[in-house]
Amino acid sequence: MSTITQDSPAAHDDHHDDHHHGAPKGIMRWILTTNHKDIGTLYLWFSFIMFLTGGAMAMVIRAELFQPGLQLVEPNFFNQMTTVHGLIMVFGAVMPAFTGLANWLIPMMIGAPDMALPRMNNWSFWILPFAFSILLSSLFMEGGGPNFGWTFYAPLSTTYSPDSTALFVFAVHIMGISSIMGAINVVVTIVNMRAPGMTWMKLPLFVWTWLITAFLLIAVMPVLAGVVTMVLTDKYFGTSFFDAAGGGDPVMFQHIFWFFGHPEVYIMILPSFGIISAIVPAFSRKRLFGYSSMVYATASIAILSFLVWAHHMFTTGMPVFAELFFMYCTMLIAVPTGVKVFNWVATMWRGSITFETPMLFAVAFIILFTIGGFSGLMLAITPADFQYHDTYFVVAHFHYVLVTGAIFSIMAAAYYWLPKWTGNMYSESLGRWHFWCSVISVNVLFFPMHFLGLAGMPRRIPDYAIQFADVNQIVSIGGFAFGLSQLIFLAVVIKCIRGGEKAPAKPWEGAEGLEWTIPSPAPYHSFTTPPEVK
Amino acid sequence: MDKLQRKSNKKLIIVLIFSSLGMFGFGFALVPLYDVLCDALGINGKTQSTASVYQPVVIDKSRSITVEFVSQVQSDMPWTFKPEVNTMQVHPGELIRTHFVATNLSAKHIVGQAIPSVSPGQGAAYFNKTECFCFNQQVLTAQAEADLPLIFFVDPELPDSISTLTLSYTLYNITDKGYVASTAVEQGAAR
């Protein structure tokens, strides 16, 4: 406490200065910062730390599943690991990474000096470490942390949950508030702060996809806040939203949760589409094929995402007409998604392509995300879903779309814009090592899970039947290799920050966009006078 | 930022904040909406919670419906709870009387509430109870046993696609929940 009070007068002065000069020095720069680039950096580092934390939990899961039987951890601890791994990866790794990218890139892409609401921006980042400290500390409480799966189905999260559930609820509340503030900031920035001449159909696709994502966030994060509040009052204050004994209905939990949950999965993939739509044209040295169809496809995916939630619940005993409705709506989403995939392929068609690390990740994204999309279509088929439901097939599906989808696009974005952020080129050879280690191990990790699921191995269980032993061993080895490969990425980023070949303002020959018109590294204040967009 | 932009920012922020508050409210509005929709479409297997009136109708002797009874007790509740018969054949329109048997195995006075559910869910609207223990709370004193009556008839309008109706009861211990005991019916005698 004393150090903070000693530091603050100096930091206060610095803060006044930063309107005219570069970044202030010291820790208070980061705590008090309202600069979109600083906040973007904070978000990205936070997300990477959470990625490693959630990854460490995945390693515990894979170590336990290396052999049949119970050897390393108690079943209850295993359940906590699956739950907190999911929560951290969704709310701590993927979503903050996208918010970090939005902070860094949106003002530079639309020619704005900063985000529209800098002070709120600072708050929306700095409440996140508290949320995750609360969540992680609940693991050390008596009775353990949340052990009901990241989807916290009632009555697991109400009647049967540990005493620490209130901490889980408050952590989710804080994460939700942070996301909503971030989303409001993005919408106001994009709507009101575009440079003159930057019309809607000239917006870079990353900006478009984030704008649509922000609307999804504003629409569904409050519903999540509502449903955790109902869990809280059911558990501690005697209400019966989900308790059949008091007139409630546990199936209703799933309806409300997935009303949030399905748009949420598009929140975690739409910005990826924007990233890939920037990288593929740059390294194909062609314009993006079908720009406007990309915009409309993104918007249709967002709208359809509100009509498909019950495909997560086919086995709850819905009437046939509802199952058919949700099945067809779900399959309909493959159409706009297919438009995107074909547009990327058409962009590469006859391009003069080079395969630098961002492009490697982008191409891997297109192929592997499509595999995840196909297994999603298989899951959408109602009669087939009765077999796949709650098996490792589902685990394989959503890890293909989230790891080789969302995470790979974030990696691609990091490599693509690192020269702009740091002013130095990253090490291309280390980057390739990172890519090839990741792409091989991730497939060893997740592809065999499809077969485990089809053979009937249930998810979220610490033990399994003996016939699954060999495949699980392969999966675990892939998992450890993928986890270790991410340390190469850490090495690349640190090396790039500390030095390396100086990056020109536009390090990629085919790159387009306002962010490449300012020097590398991007100055602390950019576009203080708005550029003219022709 | 100039004044004009500040003003339009403010307008947009207010709209967005109110939309997120609205969606928070919408989350809670989904609760009654869910009940209304399930009720209107008759889709989640909930049966009516008040007695229906039996009007003697034509008993459709040509058709025979299998009615199955399933009972479950909340895992930590020290009661046994079983149907008198597990399955029966009924004709649509026929008034049937059966009962369930509940026994309190503990040395304490316990209040129970049975929650019915009909499967397939679309059949729920055609399963009419003129008398059911599930309309009330059940109070069993220590070691007491009680016959819990159920009188029902299947609506002759039951769609042809349904030939089996399963009526499932789950019994919950609500002694500590502090529900109003006004509807409770003290049952049974000491064994």
Please explain how this structure is put together.
Chain A is mainly alpha-helical. Chain A folds into 2 domains: 32-252, Cytochrome c oxidase-like, subunit I domain (Cytochrome C Oxidase, Chain A), CATH 1.20.210; 269-524, Cytochrome C Oxidase, Chain A, CATH 1.20.210.10. Chain A is 67% helix and 0% strand. In chain A, α11 packs antiparallel against α13. The longest helix of chain A has 36 residues, at 75-110. With 191 residues, chain B is of the alpha+beta class. Chain B has 2 domains: 1-41; 65-190, Ctag/Cox11 (Pfam 04442). Chain B has 1 helix and 11 strands, in the order αβββββββββββ. Chain B has one helix at residues 3-41; strands at 65-73, 79-83, 87-90, 96-104, 110-119, 127-132, 138-140, 144-154, 164-173, 185-187, 189-190. Chain B has a 6-stranded mixed β-sheet with strand order 3-1-9-5-7-10, with no helix packed on it. In chain B, strands 2, 4, 6, 8 and 11 form a 5-stranded antiparallel β-sheet that branches. The A-B interface holds A 116-117, 180, 183-184, 187-188, 191-193, 218-227, 230, 238, 241, 244-246, 249, 251-252, 255-256, 259-260, 317-319, 322 and B 5, 8-9, 12-13, 16-17, 19-28, 30-31, 34-35, 41, 43-46, 74, 113, 115, 119-122, 170, 172-174, 177-179.
